Amino acid sequence: MEKSVLVDLTLCIGCRGCQVACKEWNERKASITSFKGDFTNPVKLSSECYTNIRFVETIKQTRPVWSFVKNQCLHCKIPACVSACPVGALTKSDLGPVLYSFDKCIGCRYCMLACPFDIPKYEWESTQPWMQKCSFCSELIKEDMLPVCIKTCPTGTLYFDDYDKIVAKAKKRIKDNPQKYVNHIYGLTEAGGTNWIYLSDVSFKQLGFKENIPTIPLPDVTWPFLSAIPGKITGIAVLLSAIAYFRTRGIREEDSQ
Fold it and tell me: What is the pTM of this model?
Protein backbone atom coordinates (compact mmCIF):
# COMPACT_ATOMS: atom_id res chain seq x y z
CA MET A 1 0.00 0.00 0.00
CA GLU A 2 1.34 3.42 -0.96
CA LYS A 3 2.05 5.79 1.90
CA SER A 4 0.81 9.36 1.69
CA VAL A 5 0.62 12.62 3.61
CA LEU A 6 -2.26 14.97 4.31
CA VAL A 7 -1.04 18.54 4.76
CA ASP A 8 -3.67 20.56 6.64
CA LEU A 9 -2.53 24.14 6.13
CA THR A 10 -5.02 25.43 8.71
CA LEU A 11 -2.84 23.87 11.41
CA CYS A 12 0.57 25.11 10.25
CA ILE A 13 2.15 27.78 12.50
CA GLY A 14 5.19 28.37 10.29
CA CYS A 15 7.72 27.09 12.83
CA ARG A 16 9.87 25.59 10.03
CA GLY A 17 10.71 22.56 12.16
CA CYS A 18 10.07 20.34 9.14
CA GLN A 19 12.46 22.43 7.07
CA VAL A 20 15.26 22.28 9.63
CA ALA A 21 14.81 18.54 10.18
CA CYS A 22 14.90 17.91 6.42
CA LYS A 23 18.14 19.84 5.98
CA GLU A 24 19.77 18.06 8.90
CA TRP A 25 18.69 14.58 7.77
CA ASN A 26 19.73 15.13 4.16
CA GLU A 27 22.91 17.07 5.06
CA ARG A 28 21.91 20.13 3.03
CA LYS A 29 23.49 23.54 3.54
CA ALA A 30 21.63 26.37 5.26
CA SER A 31 20.90 29.56 3.32
CA ILE A 32 23.32 32.38 4.12
CA THR A 33 22.73 35.76 2.53
CA SER A 34 25.64 37.89 3.70
CA PHE A 35 29.28 37.73 4.72
CA LYS A 36 28.13 38.12 8.35
CA GLY A 37 26.62 34.66 8.19
CA ASP A 38 22.97 35.67 8.43
CA PHE A 39 20.68 32.67 7.98
CA THR A 40 17.41 33.24 6.16
CA ASN A 41 14.33 31.29 5.20
CA PRO A 42 14.72 29.97 1.63
CA VAL A 43 12.07 31.61 -0.54
CA LYS A 44 11.88 28.64 -2.89
CA LEU A 45 13.05 25.07 -3.32
CA SER A 46 16.61 24.49 -4.53
CA SER A 47 19.27 21.79 -4.74
CA GLU A 48 20.02 22.56 -1.07
CA CYS A 49 16.41 22.92 0.05
CA TYR A 50 14.07 19.96 -0.38
CA THR A 51 11.22 21.54 1.59
CA ASN A 52 10.42 25.05 2.75
CA ILE A 53 7.67 27.07 4.36
CA ARG A 54 6.24 29.86 2.24
CA PHE A 55 4.58 32.78 4.02
CA VAL A 56 1.53 34.18 2.22
CA GLU A 57 -0.62 37.15 3.28
CA THR A 58 -4.21 37.19 2.06
CA ILE A 59 -7.33 39.17 2.89
CA LYS A 60 -10.15 37.31 4.61
CA GLN A 61 -13.32 39.19 5.54
CA THR A 62 -11.44 42.52 5.14
CA ARG A 63 -8.69 41.39 7.51
CA PRO A 64 -5.12 40.39 6.58
CA VAL A 65 -4.41 36.74 7.29
CA TRP A 66 -1.08 34.91 7.27
CA SER A 67 -0.94 31.43 5.78
CA PHE A 68 2.01 29.07 5.91
CA VAL A 69 2.52 26.68 3.00
CA LYS A 70 4.83 23.67 3.07
CA ASN A 71 6.42 22.91 -0.29
CA GLN A 72 8.16 19.71 -1.39
CA CYS A 73 7.90 17.04 -4.07
CA LEU A 74 4.29 15.82 -4.20
CA HIS A 75 5.37 12.32 -5.32
CA CYS A 76 2.85 11.87 -8.13
CA LYS A 77 1.11 8.52 -8.32
CA ILE A 78 2.05 8.31 -12.01
CA PRO A 79 5.02 10.69 -12.25
CA ALA A 80 5.81 12.62 -15.42
CA CYS A 81 9.45 12.91 -14.32
CA VAL A 82 9.81 9.12 -14.25
CA SER A 83 8.29 8.83 -17.71
CA ALA A 84 10.52 11.60 -19.07
CA CYS A 85 13.81 10.18 -17.78
CA PRO A 86 15.47 8.28 -20.67
CA VAL A 87 17.83 6.24 -18.48
CA GLY A 88 15.71 5.17 -15.51
CA ALA A 89 17.36 7.48 -12.99
CA LEU A 90 13.90 8.19 -11.55
CA THR A 91 11.60 5.41 -10.39
CA LYS A 92 8.29 5.12 -8.54
CA SER A 93 8.44 3.03 -5.36
CA ASP A 94 5.61 0.67 -4.43
CA LEU A 95 5.48 2.52 -1.10
CA GLY A 96 4.83 5.88 -2.76
CA PRO A 97 8.11 7.83 -3.01
CA VAL A 98 9.54 8.92 -6.36
CA LEU A 99 13.19 7.90 -6.08
CA TYR A 100 16.32 9.24 -7.77
CA SER A 101 19.50 7.29 -8.59
CA PHE A 102 22.41 9.66 -9.12
CA ASP A 103 24.59 6.92 -10.62
CA LYS A 104 22.21 6.57 -13.58
CA CYS A 105 21.57 10.27 -14.18
CA ILE A 106 23.03 11.77 -17.39
CA GLY A 107 22.12 15.35 -16.57
CA CYS A 108 19.61 15.79 -19.40
CA ARG A 109 17.17 17.60 -17.05
CA TYR A 110 14.10 16.22 -18.85
CA CYS A 111 12.61 15.64 -15.40
CA MET A 112 12.72 19.37 -14.70
CA LEU A 113 10.84 20.09 -17.90
CA ALA A 114 8.27 17.34 -17.34
CA CYS A 115 7.35 18.12 -13.70
CA PRO A 116 4.13 20.17 -13.54
CA PHE A 117 4.97 21.36 -10.03
CA ASP A 118 8.50 22.64 -10.83
CA ILE A 119 10.11 20.39 -8.22
CA PRO A 120 13.40 18.82 -9.44
CA LYS A 121 16.36 21.17 -9.00
CA TYR A 122 19.78 20.95 -10.62
CA GLU A 123 23.09 21.66 -8.90
CA TRP A 124 24.10 24.43 -11.28
CA GLU A 125 26.82 25.61 -8.92
CA SER A 126 28.56 22.21 -8.78
CA THR A 127 31.29 20.84 -11.06
CA GLN A 128 29.71 17.39 -10.59
CA PRO A 129 26.01 18.31 -10.71
CA TRP A 130 23.09 16.05 -9.84
CA MET A 131 19.37 16.54 -9.66
CA GLN A 132 18.02 17.05 -6.14
CA LYS A 133 14.56 16.78 -4.56
CA CYS A 134 12.64 15.40 -1.59
CA SER A 135 12.93 11.60 -1.36
CA PHE A 136 9.94 11.22 1.01
CA CYS A 137 12.49 9.72 3.42
CA SER A 138 12.07 6.42 1.58
CA GLU A 139 14.74 4.72 3.68
CA LEU A 140 12.68 5.43 6.81
CA ILE A 141 9.36 4.42 5.26
CA LYS A 142 10.88 1.05 4.37
CA GLU A 143 11.49 0.50 8.09
CA ASP A 144 7.95 1.57 9.04
CA MET A 145 9.27 4.85 10.42
CA LEU A 146 7.97 8.38 9.91
CA PRO A 147 9.64 10.81 7.48
CA VAL A 148 11.61 13.36 9.49
CA CYS A 149 9.44 16.36 8.57
CA ILE A 150 6.32 14.59 9.80
CA LYS A 151 7.94 13.37 13.01
CA THR A 152 9.12 16.92 13.75
CA CYS A 153 5.81 18.76 13.14
CA PRO A 154 4.42 19.90 16.55
CA THR A 155 0.87 20.76 15.44
CA GLY A 156 -0.34 17.77 13.44
CA THR A 157 -0.22 19.68 10.17
CA LEU A 158 1.28 16.59 8.53
CA TYR A 159 -0.66 13.33 8.80
CA PHE A 160 0.99 10.17 7.47
CA ASP A 161 -0.85 6.95 6.59
CA ASP A 162 -1.93 4.70 3.72
CA TYR A 163 -3.19 6.62 0.69
CA ASP A 164 -6.84 5.51 0.95
CA LYS A 165 -6.96 6.48 4.63
CA ILE A 166 -5.41 9.87 3.88
CA VAL A 167 -8.00 10.64 1.22
CA ALA A 168 -10.83 9.48 3.48
CA LYS A 169 -9.58 11.71 6.31
CA ALA A 170 -9.30 14.73 4.00
CA LYS A 171 -12.87 14.25 2.72
CA LYS A 172 -14.20 13.78 6.25
CA ARG A 173 -12.58 16.99 7.48
CA ILE A 174 -14.21 18.96 4.68
CA LYS A 175 -17.59 17.28 5.27
CA ASP A 176 -17.48 17.87 9.03
CA ASN A 177 -16.22 21.46 8.74
CA PRO A 178 -17.50 22.92 5.45
CA GLN A 179 -17.26 26.45 6.84
CA LYS A 180 -13.59 25.97 7.67
CA TYR A 181 -12.11 24.45 4.52
CA VAL A 182 -12.06 25.33 0.83
CA ASN A 183 -14.04 22.59 -0.93
CA HIS A 184 -11.04 21.23 -2.79
CA ILE A 185 -8.37 18.65 -1.97
CA TYR A 186 -5.27 19.74 -3.83
CA GLY A 187 -3.40 16.74 -5.23
CA LEU A 188 -6.39 14.42 -5.31
CA THR A 189 -6.81 14.79 -9.08
CA GLU A 190 -3.98 17.11 -10.16
CA ALA A 191 -1.59 15.31 -12.53
CA GLY A 192 -3.58 12.12 -12.02
CA GLY A 193 -3.18 12.28 -8.24
CA THR A 194 -0.27 12.75 -5.84
CA ASN A 195 0.83 11.11 -2.62
CA TRP A 196 0.93 14.47 -0.84
CA ILE A 197 -2.49 16.14 -0.68
CA TYR A 198 -3.52 19.48 0.84
CA LEU A 199 -6.40 21.07 2.71
CA SER A 200 -6.71 24.83 3.17
CA ASP A 201 -9.01 27.56 4.45
CA VAL A 202 -7.74 29.91 1.73
CA SER A 203 -8.06 29.27 -2.01
CA PHE A 204 -5.10 27.43 -3.44
CA LYS A 205 -4.83 30.06 -6.16
CA GLN A 206 -4.24 32.75 -3.53
CA LEU A 207 -1.61 30.56 -1.91
CA GLY A 208 0.35 30.28 -5.15
CA PHE A 209 -0.33 26.64 -5.98
CA LYS A 210 0.06 25.62 -9.61
CA GLU A 211 -3.22 25.89 -11.51
CA ASN A 212 -4.71 24.33 -14.62
CA ILE A 213 -2.82 21.07 -14.15
CA PRO A 214 -4.47 18.25 -16.14
CA THR A 215 -6.31 15.62 -14.13
CA ILE A 216 -4.99 12.85 -16.35
CA PRO A 217 -1.58 11.31 -15.58
CA LEU A 218 0.96 13.52 -17.32
CA PRO A 219 3.00 10.66 -18.82
CA ASP A 220 -0.01 10.21 -21.13
CA VAL A 221 0.79 13.70 -22.38
CA THR A 222 4.60 13.71 -22.32
CA TRP A 223 5.39 10.26 -23.68
CA PRO A 224 4.13 10.84 -27.25
CA PHE A 225 6.58 13.73 -27.51
CA LEU A 226 9.47 11.81 -25.96
CA SER A 227 8.89 8.80 -28.20
CA ALA A 228 9.36 11.10 -31.18
CA ILE A 229 12.88 12.09 -30.12
CA PRO A 230 15.12 11.62 -33.18
CA GLY A 231 17.86 9.04 -33.32
CA LYS A 232 20.62 11.64 -33.08
CA ILE A 233 19.31 12.77 -29.69
CA THR A 234 19.19 9.15 -28.59
CA GLY A 235 22.85 8.88 -29.57
CA ILE A 236 23.65 11.91 -27.43
CA ALA A 237 21.83 10.26 -24.53
CA VAL A 238 24.03 7.17 -24.92
CA LEU A 239 27.13 9.37 -24.91
CA LEU A 240 25.96 11.22 -21.81
CA SER A 241 25.26 7.88 -20.14
CA ALA A 242 28.86 6.85 -20.75
CA ILE A 243 30.10 10.13 -19.31
CA ALA A 244 27.86 9.69 -16.28
CA TYR A 245 29.18 6.15 -15.78
CA PHE A 246 32.81 7.22 -15.68
CA ARG A 247 31.98 10.22 -13.51
CA THR A 248 30.16 8.16 -10.88
CA ARG A 249 32.83 5.45 -11.02
CA GLY A 250 35.43 8.07 -10.19
CA ILE A 251 33.37 9.28 -7.21
CA ARG A 252 32.96 5.73 -5.93
CA GLU A 253 36.71 5.17 -6.17
CA GLU A 254 37.36 8.37 -4.22
CA ASP A 255 34.86 7.35 -1.53
CA SER A 256 36.44 3.90 -1.17
CA GLN A 257 39.91 5.30 -0.54
Answer: 0.84
Cβ–Cβ < 8 Å for 128, 243: no
d(CA 185, CA 171): 8
> What CATH number did the domain enclosing 19 receive?
3.30.70.20
Q: What is the pLDDT along the chain (257 residues), one digit of tens a residue?
A: 899 999 999 999 999 999 999 999 999 987 655 445 556 678 889 999 999 999 999 887 788 889 999 999 999 999 999 999 999 999 999 999 999 999 999 989 999 999 999 999 999 888 788 999 999 999 999 999 999 999 999 999 999 999 999 999 999 999 999 999 999 999 999 999 999 999 999 999 999 999 889 888 877 665 555 555 554 444 544 444 444 444 444 444 444 45
Structural domain that includes position 75 = 1-257
**Would you call 190 helix, strand, or coil by DSSP?**
helix
